[in-house]
């Protein structure tokens, strides 16, 4: 069984705004019947103000698809179209106090239904810009298509590079076989051979000419931050994330910063939670954005013992 | 009210008598059966007894044909890999598109190792074409692996006939019978089946114990080499308590065989009729005339299975589904796909699998509970109108792939 939040269950058992709006003037149909999730979003928009007066959904799908649809309709009502379009899939997931990684696509479907309905209202063509593949990395919810596209765009050759670019494989590492299989195929397609890293070796020699995420160009925002400035920035980011964690009865504390490694403690409900890797991944992403440099977020419990 | 468990093809409750029989083997009877002293010796006798009990249920000719393993998957892997190892010149495998992942994923992996895998297709009721099968049998084939009963639909395959055909062609025949053992009678000594897998936890024994039946004289190469346990065919100290439990569970299954095929079947048939009478746009998948007595798989059109299961779970009813969402994959069950069930129905399949512990009162409660759940979800479905499916559902709602 999935580990659904109380909020997801609430919106699934008692969905809000179920059914089509009779006098809708914007309709968005998205989803894939082969995957088992599809959604029709109907909007009633005030032509004078562009405010969404009412929203309704019809969903063929699982518990989290229905909950995401219900959440979406609650979130958009009363907003202007432009405000509503600011809603990201993460916002939908956050509204529901999080979704399991395998179910994040339900929130993506919600956002896309909104885009499609708005386009329909405005008389625009809307085409889906992403394709979804089989889930490879469960820790960070990265799928096959995303990994292949990143490998192709950046000429990646190793599992480690794939992890640096997409985060896939950066958690429990049990998907490395899957990533190796993708690399084997993608490298064969461009006439190369996949060479796995030797067991126990620390790191393969770095290839020149590749963009290295670990060594960002100095142009990145961080530039010459002092250690104190960096720690303050990190604290700021953690502070901003705290309310979301507290909503789940958890918390995070900064333990230490060593070069590019940020050690944190997940406290309360977060510790031992199955979603801990996901949470750490989210924190890492926010820190990378704020600091403008690549950092790794690691639980303090996994810190190597100091000699 | 107690919760209702109708997911016995997933796993079963360990029978309380089985638990009682196992307990001494954790404490006073802790000895290693390979030891000479009395601590081990008694345990050795208990294993011997369990082996006899399994032999009886399977109708095996010799008790030495029973090899204890850790699970059904281990038995499947051992059988298939043994056949390949023992006959390195044969590079082909015949199986079906509807096998359990324990066989399918192994075969898929073996393809990357250069083996050719023939997957027999099924028709809309999940039945095989035996003529197509006959044409594939050759001296290139190392092993045929075909399940006895399908875990999702309960559909039975004609394994006795297929084993005969393989034997005549000089090909080894393995059957994954984890769903069939204990539910339908069998007498392996009268068959041409060379290898058979069973799993303890499907028949009221604990998880973590299985059996590979290996007909005497069948060429064999062990998967696990090491100690001399199981006559050198499966190394590793025996899981004594669980083996004792499995033995007793087999004896009980033998005693309940008639009950399973009359009383449990009656419960299943009532459940089927009750649900189909009350729910429109629902149908039974698989071959209703040729299936396990305990299994009912119903497709509820235009809604999704995980949502059904969650609402049933809220009512205290446990079953399972072939929808993509319940497994975290992108496609509905490969069994439903193979039978050509449309996506709008395949995602809405629900499997009810009963056991001798279910009662008619429980069946009636499920018949009461299911129709409102289906109706509630259909009210949310873009395919469903006020009183039935919308006209031309596939055209009325054709979403952009997202």
What would you call the quaternary organization? heterodimer
Report the major sheet of chain B: 7 strands, mixed
Q: Name the chain pair whose interface involves the most residues.
A: A-B, 44 and 33 residues
CATH class (first level) name of the largest domain in chain A? Alpha Beta
Task: Give a count of the beta strands of chain B, DSSP E runs of length 2 or more.
Answer: 13
Low-pLDDT runs of 5+ residues of chain A are 208-222
How would you describe the shape of chain A? globular
Computed structural class of chain B: alpha/beta
Helix/strand-derived class of chain A?
alpha+beta
User: How many domains make up the 3D coordinates of chain B?
Assistant: 2
Q: How many strands of chain A?
A: 8
What top-tier CATH class of the largest domain in chain B fits best? Alpha Beta
Rounded average pLDDT of chain B = 95
Largest sheet of chain A: 3 strands, antiparallel
Report on the structure:
The complex is a heterodimer of chains A (307) and B (402). With 307 residues, chain A is of the alpha+beta class. Chain A folds into 3 domains: 117 residues, Sufe protein. Chain: A (Alpha-Beta Complex); 55 residues, Arc Repressor Mutant, subunit A (Orthogonal Bundle), CATH 1.10.10.1100; 76 residues, GMP Synthetase, Chain A, domain 3. Chain A is built from 10 helices and 8 strands. Chain A is globular and about 65 Å long. About 5% of the residues of chain A have low confidence. Chain B has 2 domains: 240 residues, Type I PLP-dependent aspartate aminotransferase-like (Major domain) (Aspartate Aminotransferase, domain 2, 3-Layer(aba) Sandwich), CATH 3.40.640; 136 residues, Aspartate Aminotransferase, domain 1 (Alpha-Beta Complex), CATH 3.90.1150. Chain B has a 7-stranded mixed beta sheet with strand order 2-8-7-6-5-3-4, with helices on both faces. In chain B, strands 9-10-13-12 form a 4-stranded antiparallel beta sheet, with helices on one face. In chain B, β3, α4 and β4 form a beta-alpha-beta unit. The relative contact order of chain B is 0.15. The radius of gyration of chain B is 22 Å and the shape is globular. Chain B has 15 helices and 13 strands. With 402 residues, chain B is of the alpha/beta class. The two termini of chain B are 42 Å apart. At the A-B interface, β1, β2, β3, α2 and α5 of A face α10 and α11 of B.
């Amino acid at each position: 069984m999935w580990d659904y939040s109380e909020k997801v269950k609430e919106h699934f058992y008692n969905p809000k705004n179920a059914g089509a709006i009779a006098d809708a003037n914007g309709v968005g149909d998205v989803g894939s019947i082969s995957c088992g999730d599809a959604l029709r979003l109907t909007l009633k928009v005030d032509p004078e103000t562009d405010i969404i007066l009412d929203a309704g959904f019809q969903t063929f799908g699982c518990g989290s698809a229905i909950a995401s649809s219900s959440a979406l309709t609650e979130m958009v009502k009363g907003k202007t179209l432009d405000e509503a379009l600011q809603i990201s899939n993460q916002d939908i997931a956050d509204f529901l106090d999080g979704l399991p990684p395998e179910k994040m696509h339900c929130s993506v479907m919600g956002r896309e239904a909104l885009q499609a309905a708005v386009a329909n209202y405005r008389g625009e063509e809307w085409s889906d810009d992403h394709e979804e593949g089989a889930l490879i990395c469960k820790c960070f919810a990265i799928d096959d298509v995303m990994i292949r596209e990143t490998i192709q765009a950046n000429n990646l050759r190793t599992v480690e590079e794939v992890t640096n670019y997409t985060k896939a494989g950066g958690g429990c590492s049990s998907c490395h076989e899957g990533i190796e299989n993708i690399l084997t195929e993608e490298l064969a397609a461009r006439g190369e051979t996949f060479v796995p890293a030797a067991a126990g070796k620390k790191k393969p020699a770095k290839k020149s000419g590749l963009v290295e995420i670990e060594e960002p160009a100095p142009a990145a925002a961080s530039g010459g931050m002092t250690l104190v400035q960096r720690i303050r920035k990190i604290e700021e980011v953690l502070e901003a994330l705290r309310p979301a964690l507290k909503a789940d009865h958890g918390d995070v504390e900064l333990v230490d910063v060593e070069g590019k490694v940020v050690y944190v403690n997940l406290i309360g409900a977060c510790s031992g939670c199955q979603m801990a890797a996901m949470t750490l991944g989210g924190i890492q992403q926010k820190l990378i954005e704020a600091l403008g440099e690549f950092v790794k977020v690691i639980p303090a419990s996994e810190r190597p013992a100091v000699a | 009210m107690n919760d209702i468990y109708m997911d016995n093809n997933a796993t079963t409750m360990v029978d309380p008598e089985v638990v009682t029989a196992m307990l001494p083997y954790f404490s006073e009877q802790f000895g290693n059966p390979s030891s000479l002293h009395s601590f081990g010796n008694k345990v050795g006798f208990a294993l011997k007894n369990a082996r006899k009990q399994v032999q009886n249920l399977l109708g095996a000719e010799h008790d030495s044909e029973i090899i204890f393993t850790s699970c059904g998957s281990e038995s499947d892997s051992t059988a298939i890999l043994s056949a390949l190892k023992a006959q390195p010149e044969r590079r082909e495998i015949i199986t079906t598109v509807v096998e359990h992942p324990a066989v399918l994923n192994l075969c898929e992996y073996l393809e990357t190792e250069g083996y050719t895998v023939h997957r027999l297709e099924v028709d809309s009721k999940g039945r095989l074409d035996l003529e197509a099968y006959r044409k594939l049998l050759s001296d290139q084939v190392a092993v045929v692996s075909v399940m006895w009963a399908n875990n999702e639909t309960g559909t039975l395959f004609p394994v006795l006939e297929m084993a005969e055909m393989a034997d005549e062609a000089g090909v080894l025949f393995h059957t994954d019978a984890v769903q069939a053992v204990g539910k339908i009678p069998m007498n392996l000594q009268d068959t041409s089946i060379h290898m058979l897998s069973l799993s303890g936890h499907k028949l009221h024994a604990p998880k973590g114990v299985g059996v590979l039946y290996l007909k005497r004289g069948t060429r064999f190469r062990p998967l696990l080499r090491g100690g001399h346990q199981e006559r050198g065919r499966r190394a590793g100290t025996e899981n004594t308590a669980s083996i004792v439990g499995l033995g007793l569970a087999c004896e009980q299954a033998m005693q309940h065989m008639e009950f399973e095929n009359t009383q449990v079947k009656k419960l299943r048939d009532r459940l089927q009729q009750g649900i189909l009478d009350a729910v429109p746009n629902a149908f039974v998948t698989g071959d209703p005339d040729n299936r396990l007595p305990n299994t009912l798989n119903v497709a509820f059109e235009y809604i999704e299975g995980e949502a059904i299961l969650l609402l049933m779970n809220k009512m205290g009813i446990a079953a399972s589904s072939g929808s993509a969402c319940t497994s975290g994959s992108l496609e509905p069950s490969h069994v439903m796909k193979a039978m050509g069930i449309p996506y709008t129905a395949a995602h809405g399949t629900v499997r009810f699998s009963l056991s001798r512990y279910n009662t008619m009162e429980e069946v009636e409660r499920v018949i009461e509970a299911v129709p409102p759940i289906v109706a509630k979800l259909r009210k949310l479905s873009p395919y469903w109108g006020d009183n039935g499916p919308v006209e031309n559902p596939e055209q009325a709602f054709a979403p952009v792939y997202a």
